[in-house]
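CHAIN AND CONFORMATION:

***
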Amino acid sequence: MKVLQAIYDFLWGDLITIPLLNGSSLGLSLLIIILIPLGIFSTIITRFLPVRLFPEMLKVAAHKGGNSNKRSSVSGIEALIVSTATRVGMGNLVGVVAAVSAGGAGAVFWMWITAIIGSSTAFIEATLAQVHKSKDPLYGGFRGGPAYYLHKLFAKNKNKSILAVLFSLSGLLCWCGISQVIGNSVSSAFENAFNVPPLITAIVLCLPGAYIVLKKNVTVKVLDFIVPLMAGFYILLTLFVIINNFSLIPSVFARIFNEAFGLRQAVSGGFGAILMNGVKRGLFSNEAGSGSAPCAAAAADVDHPAKSGLLQSLGVFIDTILICSCTAFVMLLVPENVLSGLSGMDLLQKAMSYHFGNAGVIFIAITLWFFSFSTFLGILFYARSNIAYVFGDSWTSQTIYKAIALINLFIGCLAAYTFVWDLGDVGIGLMTIFNVIALIPMSKEAVFYLKDYETKFIKHEEKAVENVSYEKTHR
């Protein structure tokens, strides 16, 4: 436990503390020191891709279908849905609540900024995953991710790269830990909302989970149905709240922007808490740079690597700008005195009760079930390529890992073991470090494919439109 705690503190603790005015301080963890500069660097070298090519992201997402007609292939939009399943999870509920509780409304602004620069990082890692993917002999289609482009960078002619193996093992540790967190969060929510015993929740959660993940090529089909439905319903309910409180929207935005720069908390020195809580929760929620989403991006059967990158970049927007903002607005459209003294899920449940009465508590429990269940399915999809890289193409190793994850999910419903949860946090921290080692030197490769895509698809279409306009004018 001491060794694990030391690693956790090194990754997530305040490695550097910068003193600010009025007694405030800005604590920077190793991961923030790594990911924020990486995001800024990625945004610059892609020429502000998140803003410049946002319409193109929507256009690529609207074109459903893969480059192959094989049943086992995964289309670009299906890969986006898988990655969205893991991004849109507890971080969008619990994470946003924690950020606003500790950092105030201003934390939301810094979550938005983190998403904008993070989407550039997501583009680079997803594009690299596409470029260095390989055929999947077990499930069909393709597989890949950071382990595979780390292998390309460091292995040369060797069978394995040490860094690629370490990334894969870190991911497998992380996802097992997350399985327990998922189980505990869902069972707690259902016990509070419906008085359902944890054992019943464990059975209801694990039985369909086992059927889906142990059956070949069912996961993507299930997520293709669940994710758009749950995200769409959550957004619609939030729109209802916003429309019902439309007169308060200007004041909410004013509060977000005023608190974002510590104007309201300047006297008490709260700027550091506002900034760091927004940034930390934004990074945790959208996962850009952690190396998780590229495992899904590599599976996409698209006709150009940059298309997968654009889709995953859009996924960061969906997660943070849309879904996280939904949770934030649900809370910020409640009078401050109503939520005074509350934190965590109690705060969110109280906010939902304010808007929807007792149905709000029930709705949050059901939402958490869907968000968490889809996350569980998504992380086991990610695990496929990492298991294959470390242990080879074997159904035995694939099945054993799925069984371990299901056991962790079941145990998590019954009790909380912080040791396993800390393993999850340490795992994702190590994944991020190993992934970033490859992203910086290989980023020029992603930029090459971005320029190639813009030349072949965007500029070509613009020229075609110009030709049509010219013909019509001179007809």
User: Anything to note?
Assistant: The mean pLDDT is 82. Residues 2-473 form a domain with the Amino acid/polyamine transporter I fold (CATH 1.20.1740.10).
